[in-house]
Amino acid sequence: MEKNKLTKELLAQSFHDLMLHREFEKITIKNITDEAGVIRPTFYYHFQDKYDVLEYILYRDIIEKAEEMSQMGLEREAIKFAFSALERDREFYHRAFQVTGQNSFEGMFQHYAYEMWKEKLESAKLIQNTKNQLLNEHNVAMYYALGITTSVKMWMEHPRPDITADELCEAYEFLLTHSIFDLIKMK
Q1: Which of 59, 63, 171, 51 is nearest to 117 (CA)?
Q2: What does pTM read for this prediction?
Q3: Residue 158: DSSP 8-state
Q4: pLDDT of 171 strictly over 70
């Protein structure tokens, strides 16, 4: 691995380790660079701020591989991979979902989910067959992006961390394949 890539990974790992022991708001760039053993300007060569590091870790660990799977038509496997990756590093992602505000982790996750669903809908061209103007790629992709993001966030915040990625995947797939009216009729 080239030196620049190694340094970027070192900074990301430093930030990751700090997130496991400190609140996001209390982590400084100096903390990250001290932990990584580099000087402050090195951080800014690789990242704009700590939100950028957080997004980099999300993209590197989950989104990049899930996007590859989705592009091969393996959407279910991509979702299962994402849930499993979140489970493997649950403490980090639990803390990440506590990052709120303009650059919230929830917003980052939702953005990537939206992009994945929108790309799938555009390539399928199924929505063009409907006469309802509300059922366009943007609105439908946003609906499903909000759904997966909310499901993951509730799972991360659930008081029983023993609920597995497989159980989340099963519940999420059930919700994707059933309407609220199906659930009401089940009573």
Answers
A1: 63
A2: 0.90
A3: -
A4: yes
